[in-house]
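Cross-check.
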Amino acid sequence: MVLTDVDIKKFQALYRSEFGKEIGAEQAYEQGIKLVRLMSAIYRPMTKEQSEKIQKHRESTLPLLIKRITQDEMESRPQLMERSQENESHKPIA
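Predicted model, tokenized:
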């Protein structure tokens, strides 16, 4: 695996942009190679069917996640629970 001089310069620019520090070409090459190896180890393209399956799962679990987050928020803020209970007690009984 080889990084070109252009790749190294781009990595140096990204590093400077992200961390506000300059790095030499040798260090940029070493870190760039490590990044490429990491990405090739963890990145796996997926088929359209796999993508659709994941999207359906996300759509089905999103309402549950929102409910859980809302519930956790209410429990972590007692004043919100009190207001919610007050609002419930003021509703007319049908």
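The chain has two domains: 5-42, 48-89. The mean pLDDT is 86. Passed to J.P. for a second look.
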